[in-house]
Each structure stands twice: as C-alpha cells, then as structure tokens.
Amino acid sequence: MTINRKHIDRVFNEKFSLLDLKMIETYFEDEKLNEEAMLVVREQWEQFEPDSSEHAELDDVFFKLYYAIDNHPKKQSPRKPTIFLKIYRIAAVFVLGLLIAATVYFSTREDNGTGNPQWIEIVSHDGFRSQFTLPDGTSGWLGYGSSLKYHFDNKDKRIVYLDGLAFFNVAHQKEHPFIVQTPAKLHIEVLGTRFNVSAYSEDQSCDVVLQDGSVKLNLAEKEIQTMKPNERVIYHAENNSIEKFTVKNIDDFLAWKDGKLVLRDITLKEACMKLSRYYHVDFELQAKGLDHMEIQLTLENETLESALDLLSLISPVSYKVENRMAQNNQTYSKKKIIIKNRSPM
C-alpha cells in the first residue's frame, strides 16, 4: 500500500469525504506509511506559519489532521477534546463545520470595567477559513487572516466587530438589529439577510456584497446608503467616498467559502494581496508599468507554485520564491514571492 496524497490535499482544501479521513487515519496508524504521511504534511506546513501568540500551543497543521481523525464518525469516545471543555466554560458559542479549516481562538474580556457583557473573539489564520454559528442563530464563514468579535449591547442590538473577510447568514430578529462594525468605521445594519463583507484594517476600505434581503450602511450613526440584492458597495475611508455597482455574478464574490479564489477585473497589486492571504505568503511587487492591467484568474485546489505559473502565463511577469528562514526569535519568516517584469526573449 502506498500513500495517495490527494486524500491529505483534499482535507487541507476542505473538500474531503469520509473515505479521505479513513485513509489518513490508516496512513498514520501504519508504521511503514507514517513517515511518508508526515512528509506530505510538512509540505503543507511549508506554506503556513503557526501563530506565535500565547494561545497557540500546537502546530496548526498537525492539529487540523488530528482533529479530522479524532472526529471520524466511526470513532466512539466518552471524552470530549479538552479544547471544547474550555470553550463551554468561556461562553455559549457553537462553532460548526470544519474546525480543521482554521485555528479558532476564543477569549473573553471586560469592556473597560464598565460591566458590559464580555465579548468573544474568533480568529482564522491566513490561508484558512472557518464556519461559525453565533448564539443568536446567525451563521457564516470567516475568511483568510480574519477575526470576528461579538457581544450584546443591553440585549437591544446584536453587535459584531469584523477585521477581515466574512459571509453572514443573519438570523432574523425584528426588534434586534444585527450590526457589523468594521475598521473603516462603516457600520452595516441588518435584521436578517445574507451578505459578504471584506473589511481588512490594512485595506482602509470596506467592500459589501448583498445576496438576499436589505442592508443599511451607517457612518457615525447616520445612514449613508442602502443596498438591494446583487448590489456591491465599496467604501473608501481615506477620502470618505462610496462606489456602488450591480453585480452580474454574485457567486464570484462568495466562491471563497468553497475554497475557490476568483480574481475578476482587479489590478496586479490587488491580486497579489489576495494571493498573499489565500496562500499565507508575502508578496513583493517589483513589476513596473502594469498599474492598468486587469487580472482574470480562478483558482481551486492549485498549489502556490501552480497559481504563480498561471499568473505569469496570463500577465507579463515572472516570479522568484524565497523560502522560509529561521529568525532570531525562534520563529520562521513567511515564504516570499517576488514579482518582476518578464524579461524580453
């Protein structure tokens, strides 16, 4: 018997079956196959940097495989993983779906000693995404390199704070609006609907795409825009401007939930930023004179190298890969991708 690495790859890409989990379990139980399986996992690890914060006690990649194997449907165990016992003590929050998709941290903090309810934080690393369900029944996905905090404000409003990428399927509560606060200071208010938000603090912007229902966009508690289904609004915090579009194919904006990266009509700089979060690597853009070029690319289950080959095929650029290096603080740098203009033949 030999290892079929597709089983491991599908687990990391979140498109696995019960057979994939069973095969991975077999690989690690077989002494002859265990070492080879570890090498395949290490290849995945080379594209991922474990978080060095005080919360991270396990290498995330190995924990993901452990969790997938440990929760195989045929296994029966009276003991629950310690991490879940801790979660239950912290708050009444249920995270559903694929915990192997991301490292999810939960923390509680007081609000400056005012006695306000504690809030919970969910964190998803670069390169991974996770599914969540909040206590009010709202569910969704948290994207690459994102964090979501939530608490309740006197039980009148449901408030969450997003830094990153998320899709929300908001549970309808007529008397309790659901509000997403963003680093760009834009507040998204709904009662019950489905929408996508990209609001990374480093972007200084907020991109909202509405799938169903209606949305109000507020600044300083003042309504500045309303949205209807299949509309997209981009708010730029730097100059306090708004762009509004009708979306032709909303699935392009939601495909990330299924592990796809769809790049449509964006600049090379924007493409590199999205690729950086998707593959958890750093990009250094040295290419010149390509500011007006638009990228059209869809990725699904491609390795980083395959994605870079495709990028160099559809645009006049070349790339160089600088591997991870040990640093003085006993951590490793991210893999760096240098994008340059393609040399003339």
- Series of secondary-structure elements, N-terminal to C-terminal: HHHHHEEEEEEEEEEEEEEHEHEEHEE
Mean pLDDT: 77
Which secondary-structure class do the elements indicate?
alpha+beta
Stretches where pLDDT is under 50 for at least 5 consecutive residues are 49-64, 66-112
The fold-level CATH name of the largest domain is Jelly Rolls
What's the CATH architecture name of the largest domain? Sandwich
Q: What is the class of the largest domain in the CATH system? A: Mainly Beta
Oligomer: single chain
Helix content: 10-25%
* Number of separate domains: 3
- Annotation, overall tally of beta strands: 19
Report Rg: 21 Å
Straight-line distance between termini: 46 Å
Share in β-strands: 25-35%
If you had to describe this structure to a student in words, what would you say it looks like?
This protein has 345 residues and is of the alpha+beta class. It has 3 domains: 66 residues, no CATH class; 171 residues, Jelly Rolls (Sandwich); 82 residues, Phage tail protein beta-alpha-beta fold, CATH 3.55.50.30. It contains 8 helices and 19 strands. The strands form 3 sheets. Strands 1, 2, 3, 4, 5, 6, 7, 8, 9, 10, 11, 12, 13 and 14 form a 14-stranded mixed sheet that branches. Strands 16-19-18 form a 3-stranded mixed sheet, with helices on one face. The longest helix has 15 residues. It starts with a helix and ends with a strand.
